[in-house]
Amino acid sequence: VKLFFCFLLDVFIVLFLATMVVACSTTLLCVFEPNIDLSKLLFESVSAFATVGSSLGITPILSSISKLILIITMFIGRVGPLTLLSVWTKKNKKNIIYPKENIIIG
């Protein structure tokens, strides 16, 4: 039962991080592209995060900064938010002691 709750917590963390990445990228796209509907920008952002290749055809008319936001979103979606987060977290080194044994050959 404890393992199930740890797994469930991991699922919620990944889901939360994915939602935050999509929300942040959509918000930034809305700031830099005020003429385009929110639904189209949200679709582009989710599509970029999921790296599915779908588009509504608005990518060519986006500004350079908006294209850069989509590129970063694609990278985060491809590598994974949890993986990128683990790069910046402090690693706790444990004292590992390997067993020593004299092996007799022959």
Describe the structure.
This protein has 106 residues and is an all-alpha fold. It is 64% helix and 0% strand. It is built from 4 helices and no strands. It has helices at residues 2-32, 38-50, 64-79, 81-88. The mean pLDDT is 87.
Q: Uncertain segments of ≥5 residues (pLDDT<50)? A: none
What is the count of β-strands?
0
Q: What is the N-to-C order of secondary-structure elements (H for helix, E for strand)? A: HHHH
- Shape call: elongated
Structural class: mainly alpha
Assembly context of the chains: single chain
Taking all residues together, what is the mean pLDDT? 87
Tally of helical segments: 4
In helices, the fraction of residues equals: 55-70%
Percent of sequence in beta strands? under 5%
Supply Rg.
Answer: 21 Å
Largest sheet: none
Ends apart, CA distance between termini: 49 Å
